[in-house]
Amino acid sequence: MRKPYTILVVRTGKEALAFSVWPQVVPLLLLLGALTAGVVFYPQAQRQEHERARTRSLEEQALQLQEHLTSLEAQVQSLRQRAGVAHPKALAKPQASGSSVPSDSAQRLQSAQVRLVALATDFTQQVRPELEKVLAEEAARPWGLPLRKMNRLSSHFGGRRNPLGAGYEEHNGLDLSSALGTPVYATAPGLVVEAGWAAGYGNRVVVNHGYGFYTLYGHLSKIYVQTGRSIARDHLLGAVGSTGRSTGSHLHYTIFHHGQAVNPMAYMPPLPLAE
Ligand SMILES: [Zn+2]
How far is the CA of 198 from the centre of ligand 1 (A)? Predict the structure, then answer.
């Protein structure tokens, strides 16, 4: 039989401890030691790895956030241009050392926060109110034909031969040849400001759409609205006729913008019936 080993544990300032172990037990002790090390140190390593992964993920998120912000800033800039807002007013710019790229996720997140606040302020205080004005003006803008049925465009906008006499005259609208009684609809929402007889136009309706836009519908055989009435787009205004200075059943349609008659052809899709 082999002799037992003696294991000495030396303690500073204290008596040494001595253990006697049999050689057969040594591998078991080594195994136990290895297991203890595993139980104590492995989770620590795992925690560190977990921390590193968390940091990496945070950095990726911060980078993604910055990319999204850059894309959002570009979109707001495009809306800003479409709304006619030229330059941002002095807004809080990211404080971080100018053009240098933030080096860690904490800095990136901080910079993203500053950019987000600036973007939200810019959007709500400048871009959005301007966009709403543009959209409101677009909603008030006359669009399309005031008739669902017409035969032909009998007279263009601009200079033309006087249909009732000699010489030339300026025609301030379009003449849309159509059957007597054909319904006439408003080409934009607005307020009826004239509904009755006027020299030349006969029975006519004038609608104020705001933003400098007015539309006039002339030579009507019937008028279905009263002055002062608020109407929606496509509201029934009257019926085609030949009242006033007219040579046949047609609708005279004028669009005024800031007091000037403009070509209604610019306010409708291309006419398939146009000559
Ligand atoms: Zn006319």
Answer: 13
Interval 112-166: pLDDT, tens? 889 999 999 988 998 899 889 889 889 999 999 999 988 889 899 987 677 666 6
Domain that holds residue 181: 152-267
Cα–ligand 1 centroid distance for 209 (angstroms): 21
Give residue 153 CA to ligand 1 midpoint distance, Å.
10
Give the total residue count for the chain: 275
Question: Please, are residues 210 and 193 in contact by the beta-carbon 8 Å criterion?
Answer: no
User: What angle in degrees, to the nearest 10, is found between the helix axes of 105-122 and 26-82?
Assistant: 20
Q: What is the pTM of this model?
A: 0.65
Whether 135 and 205 map to the same domain: the answer is: no
d(CA 273, CA 72): 45
Same domain membership, residue 33 and residue 126: yes
Q: Which amino acid is at 96?
A: A
Q: b/e for 182-195, b at 16 or more Cβ within 10 A?
A: bbbbbbbbbebebb
Q: For residues 196 and 238, is the Cβ–Cβ distance under 8 A?
A: no
